[in-house]
Structure formats: structure tokens, C-alpha cells
Design goal:
The chain is an alpha/beta fold. The chain has ten helices and 13 strands. It has helices at 19-30, 60-67, 84-102, 134-152, 180-185, 204-216, 235-246, 266-272, 288-294, 301-318; strands at 12-15, 35-39, 50-54, 72-75, 105-110, 156-161, 164-166, 188-192, 198-199, 201-203, 224-226, 233-234, 251-255. Strands 3-2-1-4-5-6-11 form a seven-stranded parallel beta sheet, with helices on both faces. The chain has a two-stranded parallel ribbon with strand order 7-10. It has a two-stranded parallel ribbon with strand order 8-13. Helix 1 crosses helix 6, helix 2 packs across helix 3 and helix 3 (84-102) packs parallel to helix 4. The protein is globular. The two termini are 30 Å apart. This is NAD-dependent epimerase/dehydratase family protein. Pfam families: Epimerase. Residues 16-220 form the NAD-dependent epimerase/dehydratase domain.
């Protein structure tokens, strides 16, 4: 573990260096903040203007060391799908204790899982939490603890919920490495579930910008916000957008039920089976509350597809 180094009292610490954490670190630097990016190894690719730091934030010692004197902490940690119900509660406990000790504000990147099956109803921040899956119930329990901590005054917390990620750097998503590499090379493109249903996708850059805004605007604390998300369209419509940009028809294989395909191996799909309802009913996210309150505008899906195709072209060349 890295030794604790002095930080500015106005610095921002990002826990988790996956696509969301990395995009957020870049966005915070762009906004002029001093940024620390934390993961277990601390040895990933250099990010301009960002201090990398190694810590295991599922432990009390690791969380305290990682957070240091940061004014704002962003929890973007994720773990292997089969480990989530075991590890994520430990991360929450350690991080909440650490920010409670230091007084740092905590911004949590959240999922739609607490809502559970909606029957296709539009999801707003007022939608009921009715998850029945293990991972959905776990996320709902964590979120209630975050909000309770804020209500009780033991931590200052805000949650930003995102739909499925898409965008530059996003690999492990239903609109990631199972789609774009094959679209560019003529291989088999995965289409999960009913690809004619409307499905919301959140540009990873909007995830980053939305979390950064919550970090800068404490008046949003104490509640859940839906991060800026473009209006939902069907996955088939997005495939059509991709076809226009790559100049060839996609060879789409509809994965109508959870089974291994491409980057989704057997272990992942066995764990994901309980969440597969997300692809067999409409998944529609309304982020208008965030947009009105903070003056945000989500990236148009056409621009997201352009940027994602361009990123995957470079990624395939550099592999």
C-alpha cells in the first residue's frame, strides 16, 4: 500500500479506476481540481494531472489512507460480478467510516438495480425500490444505509444513478466489447434480450460530468439523482447508427436468454441471469430532475456512437 501523501483540503479522491472512475478523474482535472485516483495496485496507465494511489478500500485502513484529506470522495469501486454481494458491503462500511472521520463529502456512483422489474414504467427518482434479485436487494440495502447516514448526520452523501454505460473506454457493458469490435471487423454482434424495446444508455462522459457536478454542488446532497441520460431508443436503433458509421450491416446475434457469448463468459452469465429482466422489458430512465436542477444536457446518442466507434478503432489497432 502506498504511504499517505499530503493532499490539498480542496482535493478530490476517486475510488475505483474503471471506465467511470478514470473518466471522472479526467473530468475533475479538466475542471481545475487536484485529483487522486485509487485502486488496489495504483500502477495503471498515467492520467495527466492525476495522482495514482494504491489501497484496498474494502478495509478500514485502506479507506482512510486512500481518502486522506480529500474534501470530496467519489465511490466508483466495482468488483467482479460474482463477488459483488460479498465485497460491496465491506467497501461501503469502510468508506462511510472514513468519510465520517474526515468530514469529506461522499458521492456514490449507483445503479438502477434497486428499482427491480418495472414492467416498462419510466424510472424517476421517485420510482419505488422493489428489487427481488440478490444484487438488486443488496444495492437497495446499501443505498438506504447511505441515505440514513446522511439523515443521521454521520456522513454527507449523494447518489448518482446511471443506466448501462456506453462510450469511449467502456468494455464490460451490454453496449461495449460485445458490440463494437465485431461491428468494426464483421464478427458477431451481441444483442441482449428484446432489442426492439426502448433501453436507456448513459454516455460514460455524462456519468463523469454528472458525478463531478454533484461533487461541486453540495445542495444536491442527501438524495438520489439520475445522471444525465439521453432519451431511450431501442438497441436495434443504436445498431443502425453503428452500421452507418462503420459502413457495413451488423451481424447481430440475439442472445434471448442468459448464456455465454463473446466477452460474457459462463460465470458472468450465471450471475447475470437474475438481472436479465433488464433486457426483456423496457428500461427507460428519466434524468430531467438533474438536467433542470444543474443545467445539464445529456450527450446525444449519435455523438456517443461516433465517439465510441472512434475509440474502438484506436483500441483495436493498439491491441
Amino acid at each position: 500500500m502506498s504511504a499517505v501523501t499530503p493532499q490539498s483540503p480542496t482535493s478530490h479522491t476517486v475510488l475505483g479506476s474503471g471506465p467511470a472512475g478514470t473518466a471522472l478523474a479526467r473530468e475533475l482535472v479538466r475542471r481545475g481540481h487536484r485529483v487522486r485516483l485509487v485502486d488496489r495496485k495504483g500502477d495503471g496507465p498515467a492520467v495527466e494531472g492525476v495522482e495514482r494511489f494504491a489501497a484496498d478500500v474494502s478495509t478500514a485502513e485502506g479507506a482512510r489512507a486512500a481518502i486522506g484529506a480529500a474534501a470530496v470522495v467519489y465511490h466508483c469501486v466495482n468488483v467482479g460480478y460474482h463477488l459483488q454481494t460479498e465485497v460491496m458491503p465491506r467497501v461501503q462500511e469502510a468508506v462511510l467510516a472514513a468519510v465520517g472521520e474526515t468530514g469529506a463529502r461522499l458521492v456514490v456512483l449507483d445503479t438502477l438495480y434497486p428499482y427491480g422489474e418495472t414492467g416498462g414504467a419510466v424510472m424517476t427518482e421517485d420510482s419505488p425500490w422493489q428489487a427481488t434479485s440478490r444484487k438488486g436487494r443488496m444495492r437497495a440495502e446499501l443505498d438506504e444505509r447511505y441515505l440514513s447516514a446522511h439523515r443521521e448526520g454521520t456522513a454527507r452523501v449523494v447518489l448518482g444513478r446511471s443506466a448501462d454505460f456506453v462510450g469511449p473506454g467502456v468494455l464490460n457493458s451490454s453496449l461495449g466489447a460485445a458490440v463494437f469490435p465485431a461491428a468494426l471487423t464483421g464478427g458477431e454482434v451481441a444483442g441482449l434480450g428484446d432489442i426492439d424495446l426502448p433501453h436507456s444508455y448513459t454516455d460514460i462522459r455524462d456519468v463523469a460530468a454528472g458525478l463531478a457536478t454533484l461533487g461541486e454542488r453540495p445542495e444536491g446532497d442527501g438524495r438520489v439523482w439520475h445522471l444525465p441520460t439521453a432519451p431511450a431508443v431501442s438497441t436495434r436503433e443504436i445498431h443502425t447508427m453503428i452500421e452507418k458509421r462503420v459502413g457495413r450491416p451488423l451481424n447481430v446475434v440475439v442472445v434471448a436468454e442468459p448464456r455465454p457469448f463473446g466477452p460474457f463468459d459462463e460465470r458472468f452469465m450465471a450471475e447475470y441471469a437474475e438481472m436479465f429482466y433488464q433486457h426483456t422489458e423496457p428500461q427507460i430512465v428519466d434524468s430531467s430532475a438533474f438536467e433542470r436542477t444543474f443545467g445539464a444536457v445529456p450527450t446525444p446518442l449519435a455523438d456517443t456512437v461516433d465517439a465510441t466507434v472512434a475509440w474502438y478503432e484506436e483500441w483495436l489497432t493498439g491491441r
